[in-house]
Predict the structure.
Amino acid sequence: MTDSSVLDLAPVVPVVVVEDVADAVPLARALVAGGLRAIEVTLRTPAALDAIRAVADEVPDAVVGAGTVISPQNVADSVAAGARFLVSPGWTDTLLDAMKKSGVPFLPGVSTTSEVVALLERGVSEMKFFPAEAAGGVPYLKSLAGPLPQARFCPTGGVSLDSAPSYLALKNVGCVGGSWMLPADAVAAKDWARIETLAREAAGLK
C-alpha cells in the first residue's frame, strides 16, 4: 500500500483482538480469503505486537494495521512490528504528532464536532468515529456532512452487519470497523472457514 487511504481498502475493516499469537496468521488468511485485506489488530493484549509481526511476515496479501494506539511508544512499536496503518480511539497533540511522523497512514479517533474541526485545522481529514453507536451513530455523522464535508470517517464501535449498510450509504463514510465477522466461539474453535464466510459477507456490503 502506498499512502493511499485506509478508508478505500475495503468497506469493512475487521477489528481483531488476538489472545494467542498462533491464531494470527490463519485468522488473517481467512479474512483475506473472504475479501477483507485491511486488518486492524488492537493493542489490547500482550500478543498484539507479535500478531502484527506474524501477519506482516506471513500474509503478504493482508494490509495489517494497529488499533488502540494511544501513545508515541505504541506508534513506534507498531510500525517496528510491521503495521501499515494506525488507528486510535482518540487523539492528543502528542499522539497526533507521533502518528504524522510515523510514515504510515493513520485514523485518529473522534466523537465530537470540535475534535473533527481541530483535526481539520491540523491538516487531517480522515478519522475514526468512535464509539460510533454510543456517540450518535448514523444521524450524527449525517449531520456533520453539511458543515464539514471535507471530513471522512471510519465509524467503529457497536457497528453490526445490520447497521453497516446505513453507515456506508453516507457520503462522508469510507468504511466501517467491526468485529462481527470474528465471533468469539469461531475463534476459540479455530473455525477459520466460518470466519472466511462471514468476511465474504462483510466484504460484499456497499
